[in-house]
Amino acid sequence: MSSVRVLVGTRKGAFVLTSDGKRKDWQVSGPFFAGWEIYHMKGSEADPDRIYVSQTSGWFGQLIQRSDDGGKTWHQPGLPSEAIPPPGPPQALPNRFAYDTAAKPLTTHQWYDGTQHPWEFKRVWHIEPSLADPDTVYAGVEDAALFRSSDGGENWQELSGLRGHGTGPQWQPGAGGMGLHTIILDATNPQRIYIAISAAGAFRTDDGGATWKPINKGLVSNFMPNPTAEVGHCVHHVAMHRARPDVLFMQKHWDVMRSDDAGENWREVSGNLPTDFGFAIDVHAHEPETLYVVPIKSDSEHFPLDGKLRVYRSRTGGEEWEPLAKGLPEKDCYVNVLRDAMAVDRLDECGIYFGTTGGQVYASADSGDSWTPIVRDLPAVLSVEVQTLN
Amino acid sequence: MSEGASISQVRVALPYHLRNLARIEGDVLVEVAPPVTLRAVLDALEAGYPVLRGTIRDYATGDRRAFLRFFACEEDWSLASPDAELPEAVAAGKEPLLIIGAIAGG
User: Rounded to a whole number, what is the distance in Å from the CA of A358 to chain B's nearest CA?
Assistant: First the structure.
């Protein structure tokens, strides 16, 4: 029988939630890496036992962890975890994210006060394993850049064409920092990758990461001096259904957007949403026109409208939205759902999952018609991913 | 190394999360050839425990990470030159080099 494994990154550790295909009874494992911020964890589709983790801390910096047994045990790729390593310098540097300044010198980017600020590595925001090779994995980092490892996370190389695009001085940090938070791989074209940065916007490569193009035409961001500038937009998240790689959906800092031409042009599809501010967005596994968002009151008040936690679903690719509330708190709920904290499984009846900053993880086994909490009292949830296991 | 100079066994006290990371309990002993400086001790620590690279000193600059402090013999060595020699008591293994994380932050 199929099963699901939900990977939950929180402010104080990682959790793995597992259930069979009925998704009624759950086993909770964790916390792994207790006390550390787990910005993101994701499994490889090429080998579901391979899971990568971004483990980060303001005190101790950035670590990469990996499991080769589906989350039972973890190690830093390529490093001995105990004393007496082999002689010589370590061949693996899994935690070293060094900008490739030889290829592209470091420039500056905008700072919160409008001045220019030097590029500095802080943490890995998002990990995206290759769809075809368990040892190839991408990392989106803060300050915004894209890295790739081809040896299972043991060593990382910057794809510097993105940072060296030339528009860098116009990029600016979002409230949480200038992070590259979205990486979308095209299953039909290994040379194409979409990424998104807060707050630079969305970019696309069609040559495997050597060169990049801003894809922000149609976005309007009134906080910028030029609201329709080529870059500088605060894109919160982008989602794509793998059967339609030219169709993208975006939750922006205000506005839900859609592109039907690989990001060349965007149009607003907020429609009848009660508010179009939010962070997470995702697409039904089997219905490419069915979308999910979690409307948040505003950029000043990051919680649901009127204390009611609701997911909104569109079955028309945007514009027409319906509230999904069954099983979700209908009062006194002031949590947020962060950009990487929503995911879908691929069971026949698609399951939807999301985690909140209040520590709850909710699951729906019926495409969002009803919800139940898997867990209620985790630390603030930063990310949710789900693996469908056969 | 001068003729007759001996290797020092330096005790290092790590914060909780780094002890967990390196899978050690209590203080860790590292062997350091003279001069026993902060840099030499940290180099030896990271050589013996590669998992700690980048967690005490920034990978890019080699500087002490901002939320960590170094103490030795009840004095704050955080702002001292990394090439200054640590107190004799530390070099002799009688006192530990303390690596402490900032308490604030929740």
Answer: 16
Q: A59 vs B56: CB contact, 8 Å cut-off? A: no
What are the pLDDT digits (tens) for A344-364? Answer: 999 999 999 999 999 999 999
pTM score, two decimals? 0.94
Chain B environment of A93 (Cβ under 8 Å): 53
Query: Which among A61, A81, A82 is the nearest to B54, CB-wise?
Result: A61
Domain limits of chain B?
A: 8-101
Residue A376 within a domain: yes
Q: What is the pLDDT of residues B48-70, one digit of tens each?
A: 999 999 999 998 889 999 999 99
pLDDT digits (tens, 9 = 90+) for A18-38: 999 999 999 999 999 999 999
Taking the Cβ of residue A170 and every Cβ of chain B, the question of whether any pair is shorter than 8 Å is answered with: no
Instruction: Specify if A87 maps to a domain.
Output: no
d(CA A249, CA A291): 8
Band (B3; pLDDT cuts 50, 70, 90): very low
Give residue for tokens 């894109």: A235
**B59–A61 C-beta distance less than 8 A:** yes
CATH number at residue A27: 2.130.10.10
Range of the domain at A24: 3-80+92-389
SS3 A165: coil
| Contacts B58 to A, Cβ<8 Å | 61
Binary contact (B53, A35; C-beta < 8 A): no
DSSP A33-93: STTSEEEEEEE-SS-TT-EEEEEEETTTEEEEEEESSTTSS-B-TT--SSS-PPSSS-S--
pLDDT at res. A114: 83
Could you tell me which residues are beta bridge partners of residue A362?
A354, A373
CA B55 to chain A, closest CA, distance in angstroms equals 4
Angle of CA points A156, A154, A237, to nearest 5°: 50
The contacts of residue A18 (CB under 8 Å, 6+ apart) are A3, A4, A5, A6, A26, A27, A29
Our count of domains for chain A comes to 1
- Let me know if residue A364 belongs to a domain: yes
Q: What is the pLDDT of residue B6?
A: 86
Which of chain B's residues have a Cβ under 8 Å away from the Cβ of A81?
22-23, 51
Q: Is A85 part of any domain?
A: no
Contact B60 A35 (CB under 8 A): no
Q: Which chain B residues have a beta carbon less than 8 Å from that of A153?
A: none
Number of helices and strands (H, E) in chain A? 1, 29
Which residue on chain B is closest to A98 by alpha carbon? B60
User: Could you give the percent of chain A with pLDDT greater than 70?
Assistant: 97
- Match domain B8-101 to its CATH number in 3.10.20.30, 3.30.70.20, 3.30.450.20, 3.40.50.80: 3.10.20.30
Q: Tell me: pLDDT of A137 over 60.
A: yes
- Whether pLDDT at A85 is above 70: no
Predicted pLDDT at A164: 85
The partner residue sitting opposite B67, judged by closest CB among A59, A76, A95, is A59
